[in-house]
Predict the 3D structure of the following.
Amino acid sequence: MFEPSLTLVRIDSDLNSVIMDYLISEGYPSAAQKFASEANIQPTSGVESIQERVEIREAIHAGDIQTAIERINELNPMTYSSADPAGKLLDRDNALHFALLRLQLVELIRTCSARPNDDFTTAIKFAESQLATRAPTNPQFLDDLERTMTLLMYDHKNLPAEIAPLLEPQLRKDVAQSVNEALLREQGERTKAKLFDLVRLRAWSERKAREANKDLPEHLGLGLDGIHHGRGRERDGGMHSNGEGEAMVA
């Protein structure tokens, strides 16, 4: 159960800092730059570092996991305040690295299954070289690899319910979110925007008020309805592919 705390969200927090925090963590470099200029505040992260996260997330959402891994490895660890100069992020975060490699295997299987002869040789070799040695080090890794390899046994148009989600876009989004949060930690930034904490606090307050039988309207909206209508692109609550979209700020 969520309980309010002054350490979670300070009631007297400056609204500009909350908005800037959202633009940075959710990946809107252009909007962050413009807002900083208009509000006369200094962003805690440079536009370049935001754009790097946007491009990495774009690659993951597109299923180009190799490019995403290469971009992550190209980042200079010395530019991140909490990073260990002795090693790159994926060398230090085994779970994140395995999640990316496992997603890369899923994408290879997806590609192979679309070929006329269903030749899965490339996917099998990748699993043997990149995942087989890592999987035994963690029971969850092993379970994830076994479930992924099960994709080779079925027609992808008629998958069992327990493995069908592996080919759904949500898996890409989940891995992309994990990468985004890891990069934010490397930069010494919050992994979740303060705005989300405010929304949770507002929902908690409404629930408590209703439990106390306070006189409230049947529906209390957040004032965000219609913001995403007419954009012509699917929004997933995170960074846009090019980082230039209008931010969800009311």
About this structure: The chain has ten helices and no strands. The first helix runs from residue 15 to 26.
